[in-house]
Amino acid sequence: MMRRRILGCVVLALVAIMTLNGASTKVKRQTMYVFGLAASLTDSVVVLTDVQPIEGFVMPNGFLADRSLYSLQLNNYLLANQQLNNMTCAVYFNKNRGKAEKKYQKMMRRYRDDHAGVLMFLGTDDFQFKAEEWEEETQEVKSDETKKQ
What is the DSSP track for 76-118? Predict the structure, then answer.
């Protein structure tokens, strides 16, 4: 009986430690290699950017924080400078430059060989991604007083 209690306490302590370690993982700034792809669903134009290194915030699960803001940068550039609207933009990223280049080559081959449209390339002298500042979202609990106002 005493062994069960001790074993139960040890298991409970281990679970508590693992939970605290998981909750305290930090988002860190790391060099990521990024390229963008923009395709129009109503036109035959596909735009591909160069692979570019950026200092981005990487979340504990390995994802680039605020990924949607990078695709928005590309979309805004295409609207303002290339007069290309209705483009669907995607951003591909990896911590390893070789893996990012491999994905870039795969996407380039896919659209060059299988796509009957126009493939445009944007070099780093034309367009560069800018690192986004990441802010952790917090859940704000409103009190009864703020709800009434």
Answer: HHHHHHS---SEEEEEEEESSHHHHHHHHHHHHHHHHHS--SE
